[in-house]
Amino acid sequence: MVPKSGQPSNPSWFTPKRLLIIFCVINLINYVDRGAIASNGVNGTLATCTDSGICTAGTGIQGDFNLNNFQDGVLSSAFMVGLLIASPIFASLAKSHNPFRLIGVGLSVWTFAVAGCGCSFDFWSIAICRMLVGVGEASFISLAAPFIDDNAPAAQKTAWLATFYMCIPAGTALGYVYGGLVGSIFNWRVAFWSEAIFMLPFPILGFLIKPLQLEGFGPTESKQTLTSIEADVSENGDDDMRAEDQAFIRGSGLKSKLWNQFTRFSKDMQELLHDSVYVTNVLGYIAYNFVLGAYSYWGPKAGYSIYHMSNADLVFGGVTIVCGILGTLAGGVILDKMNSTIPNAFKLLSGATFLGAIFCLIAFLFKGLSGFIVFFSVGELLIFATQAPVNYVSLRCVKPSLRPLSMAISTVSIHIFGDVPSAPLVGVLQDHINDWRKTSLSLTSIFFIAAVIWFIGTFLKSEDLFNKEDEEESTTALRGKGEPLLEGSSEASSHA
C-alpha cells in the first residue's frame, strides 16, 4: 500500500552529529547503571565475623539484603528478562510505529525502574526493578545503531558506530567510579535516584521532537491499514450499516493486522537464523560477552581479593575507561582504514580477541599489581577493539528492514547465553574453589573460543546488504538509495 503522504519533513534542529551525541549520552547513562550496581560502593559486601567474635556489618545491596554470591550475580542478569521479552516486540513495532517514539516509551520505563531500584526493600523487589530496566535497553539498543548507520558519513560509518559502542566500556567503568564514590559518601540508593534524574530528559525528548524514520520503514503503516479498512467500510455504505457490523469489520481488520505482524516476524526470524554469517558472528559475540560480562561484574571484587586493592572500584574503573575508549575507537578507525567489509571485520575480530586473551591470561599470572595492570591494560585495549566490527557485521549482513531485529536478537542472544549465565556461574565457581586467580584464568580462556568462531567467519561467503532494496517495503522504493534521513547528512558525507 502506497502512503497517502510523502516522507515527513526533516527536523530543523537534528543533524547526524547531534543525533549521535544524544544516543551516546543515553548509552553512557545506561551502562553507568550497569557499572554502578557492580561497584563495591553500591553492591557492597556481606557481614563478616572473625574467629574471635568481632563482626563487621555488611554494606551496600548485598549487605542490606543479605545476599549470597549466586543471588548477587542474579541481580546483574535480571534485566535480561525484560530485554528478552521486549526486544523482539520493539523491533517488530518499528515497522508500524515511529522508532524514535518507541525509544521514548522504553526509556520512560527505564527511568521509573531505576528509581524503583533505589526504593527497593528486599531481593525480589530490586530484582523485579532490574527486570524492567531491560525493557528500556531493549527499545534503545535495537534501534539506535540502525539510526546511526543510516546517517553516518559513508567513509566513517564504523568509526561512528565505534563512538557509540565506546560508551559501553566507558559507561561501565565510569559506573564503578560513580557507584564507589556515591555509595561511600551517601548511600547506594542515592546512586540509582541520581541515574533516573540524569535519564529523565531523554524519554521526554523522544516524545516531543519531530518523528525520525529508519531506512526501509514506513512512517504511517498502521495508519494506512486503518485508513484502508475505513475506506472499505465507506465503499460498502457504512451509513446504512449497524454499529455492531462496523465494529466487527474494524475488529477483523485489527486481528488481521496482528496476524500479519506475527507472520512477518516469524519469516524475518527464519531469514536471520538461516544466515550463516549472522549466526557465526552472534555465536562469537556470545562467547566474548560471557567473559566480558563476568569481568564487568566480578572485576572489582576479584581485584580486591587477588591484589588487595583498597580502591578496586577506582583502579579497575579507571583502567577500563581509558582502555575501553581507546580500544573501541581504534577498532572502528582500523576497520575503516582496512576498507570496511564483512571479511575484514571478521579478521579484526578474531585477531584482536586472540591477542587480547593472551595478554589477559598473562596478567592474572602476575603476583604484583603493577605487572597485572600493564598486561591487563594491553589485553583490554585489544579486547575492546571488537565492539564496532562485531556490530558492523550484524548491521551489514542483513537487508535494511531486518536491521532492528538483527540488533535485537544479537543483543538478546549475547545476554541470555553470555553475561546472564556467566555472572552467577562464576559466582558458583568461586564459591566452590574459593580462589579468584584460578577463577579469573578459567574465565579468560573462553576468549579463545570466541576468536576461533570469528576466524571461521573469515571463510564464509558474505555480502554487504546495506543498499539492497526490500521489495516488501514500499517506502524503500519511494525513498531513493542513499537519501539522507536527517538534515545535514549529505553535507556530512561530502566532507567525509
Name the features:
2 domains; Growth Hormone, Chain: A; 496 residues; 2 strands; 23 helices; disordered C terminus; two-stranded antiparallel sheet; mainly alpha
How does this model look, in words?
Helices cover 75% and strands 1% of the residues. The protein has 496 residues and is mainly alpha-helical. It folds into two domains: 14-45 and 59-215, Growth Hormone, Chain: A (Up-down Bundle), CATH 1.20.1250.20; 271-474, Growth Hormone, Chain: A (Up-down Bundle). A two-stranded antiparallel ribbon has the order 1-2. β1 and β2 (55-56) form a beta hairpin. α5 (79-93) runs parallel beside α7 and α8 crosses α18 (387-396). The protein is globular and about 70 Å long. GO terms for molecular function: transmembrane transporter activity. Belongs to the major facilitator superfamily. Spinster (TC 2.A.1.49) family. Keywords: Membrane, Signal, Transmembrane, Transmembrane helix, Transport.
Task: Please summarize what this structure is.
The chain is mainly α and 496 residues long. It has 23 helices and two strands.
List the helices and strands and how they pair.
Blueprint: H1 16-38, H2 40-43, E1 48-49, E2 55-56, H3 60-65, H4 69-77, H5 79-93, H6 99-118, H7 123-151, H8 157-165, H9 167-185, H10 188-199, H11 201-208, H12 221-235, H13 243-273, H14 276-307, H15 312-338, H16 342-365, H17 369-384, H18 387-396, H19 403-433, H20 436-444, H21 447-457, H22 474-478, H23 489-494
Antiparallel strand pairs: 1-2
Helix pairs in contact: 1-7, 1-8, 1-9, 1-10, 1-14, 4-7, 4-19, 5-7, 5-19, 6-7, 6-10, 6-11, 7-8, 7-19, 8-15, 8-18, 9-10, 9-15, 12-13, 14-15, 14-19, 14-20, 14-21, 15-17, 16-17, 16-18, 16-20, 16-21, 18-19, 19-20
